[in-house]
Task: structure prediction
Amino acid sequence: MKTRAIFLMLLGFTLFLFSCSKKETVTVNGWTVEANPGDGTLSFSNSELGTVLTDVRLIASDHKKIALKGWSFKTEGNNLKISSKKPKSEWAIKLSDSGIDFSTDLSGAAVSAVAPAPEKRIPARVAEQDNDVMYTQMGFVSATNIHNLFDMNTDIMISFPDNSLLTRDKKDPEMMDIAFTPVKGDDIHLIKKYYDEVVGLSRYDIKNYKPQYAPIADRFKTAPTGWSSWYCYYMSPSEESLFKETDAIAEKLKRYGVKYIQLDAAYSRGDSANWLDWYKGLYPNGGKVWFEHVIDKGFVPGLWLNIFGDNYARPSMAKKYPENFFLHDKDGNLSPACCSADKTVKRLDYTNPDVIKKHLRPLFETLVKDWGLGYLKAGGWGTWMDFYEKNRSMAFDSTKNSREIYRETHKVLRDIFGDQGYLLGCAMHEIGVGFEYFDGSRTGGDDYASWTGKNHWSGGMQTFFNSLFGANYLNGICWWSDPDDVMVRDPLTKEEGKTIVSTISLAGQAYVFSDFVADFSKERLDKFLNSKFNIGWAKNYPNLVKPLPEEKLDLYRKTMPAMPIRAMDLYPFKTKAKCCPKPKSFPKALDLKVNAASGSYDVVSLYNWTDNDTLKALDLSSDLGLEKESKYVAFDFWNKKLVNIPANRIEQTVPAHGTLALIIRKENGHPMLMGTSRHITSAYSLKYYHWDDETKIISGKSEIVPGDKYVLYIYAPKGTVQKDLKVNSSARKITVNRIGPDLLAVSFDSDDESLTWSLHF
Result:
């Protein structure tokens, strides 16, 4: 009997423990909560987002990190009630459509959790957090002042309290460790339709079309890197010039990441020319020959083409089109299509389905499948839509909406290009009309190769910066933003050039440049400068029409190609969500947060927008969201030196219109890589990087440009002795120089494409 009594007592105790540890699941207001009293954890899933929080623990004291034990769980309406015994406390968790609210009678209580934060659920800042520094991100990053996760697939911002700390899980970077103190109101707040309603994309209700947010497709992991003819040659790029530039870029810049070579306008001039039969005066051998040359040189051919027009007298796909293929005005007149070489290109009527069937589709099947077109700048500024709305009574089918037609035509292009061709939009009416179909889009007006565009309508490179900063919130989120072409040639100074290339590189937007690379013969230069067609910039600066010198080519070599960088500040910077934005001012710095094979660190461009050399300051905590209690090391990329950081604050004189490009890493008590000569981000060439604390060896693997000197900049505190250097390479020359008290420059001259190296300290 005694044995039986003991058995029953043990059985009862076991059943009691089982009942206490039994998991319970409840569903309230779109939330599914799983409670596990046995280990004191909760998990929260949302009907739209999936898992939002796991391993949620209620903490009795934020200071001592004491998790509650022995708690019971029950539901009361929309509330979950939790009672704990150790320590004794009461918690209420309210679940609503807009979020989760935690409340408790414990003073100093906290909540810890783990949140999924994969590639498409990204750390983000909102407009209220603007501190005059623009943040971008590459890889799985975090910062002390990031309190939001944006879910790109659903347009939902998951907002945590301002006191929250979100840090990447060390074992799984696709998870974020969360800690916060409960506040009154939703601690986890879901901001639905964030881009549509909060940013305001849906406010562009124009002609009964309301753009809606759509996440960027997975076709391209980066913005494009390439060359455009426009801001060099404008309407006068001859066949000879295109061949010369293609050859020169292949020789001087292809190895640094240039992929696309794009011709802009000019070729469809005259009654006998169309999109396939080019103007003989400039292209005697036709366009396909140049396409073949571009492909032969290892590039992807690109073309500007306004799909909403074609030559009226001699259209591209027939001897003559029916009259109802063209869109007439209310007086019955034809209208020139925007931005073409001359008035021979007339607007087409895409409300007639035969225009797509018999013109657009066969035209692009020829260009893409036969010619090899892989990059289209769909030009025209979207002016066709305005013309149609004013004259829709003359259309083949006046019931159609202009924005719907615009999307229908680009859907056809998307189908033909598939996942391989890059489609760049150029509708400057409203943001979003090309979402889903465009890989990227222009976000502003034309720029110009001078800092201010003095005596020119464009605004010069200020227009470039307006577009870049004002529309960066779309970059890598909805499409790859294109602020217009990059230029560094004179009269732009070298310091201005550094600012331009540093900004485009750290923003991760379209890196399409338009500078002269090829040498000019006297004959070719004379022909160009005396062209009867528009030569644009060259008319104002004829003495500056020359190939880039090496020192400016190096600006491109050190910042190309575009990297997989997307916005972190998901709001229009000091402006509203609109096309051709014009921020009230430019940021004092741009901060790229990196987590790559090269490590976790920040790359910061500290600006001086004034006309005089000026002392500029940067606080690592308040400006960059770095840890207050940690020490950091900063490397000046352009000047190849370390920068002092007293009290985690940088103060440096920055040249007029210039920038200080800083790579900032946490000081960890041993030698570490600060940067490379190859790319401003240090993330392009490094495929592997590691410090072994036992052997005191720093090692890595780099992809390099054969024949070019490749330099590693190593932080090695004074007194650190570099004992040995090993290289798995046919390097002709290897040197190690201490170029400052705490900095080593390790240089390699090699004909290899990869370099495996190690330094023993």
